[in-house]
Amino acid sequence: MGGTVIEGRPGVIPWSAVLRWAEHHGLTWSEMALLDRVLLAMDSIYIQHWTAKFKAKVS
After folding, report:
1. 3: enclosing H helix or E strand
2. Would you call 46 helix, strand, or coil by DSSP?
3. Residue 3 above 70 pLDDT?
4. Is the Cβ–Cβ distance between 35 and 18 less than 8 Å?
């Protein structure tokens, strides 16, 4: 019996979530912008890592 495995994939943290978090913690706009850029960079690295692992798993 063949089966399909449905697996979620990571994406970037939405800007709206970063904004809400920054507002909750009292960050300035410039601090929030820096946080957003850092998170985007980290998300990009993690997505690349996840993609490589997924491709190796599927191959």
Report:
1. none
2. helix
3. no
4. yes
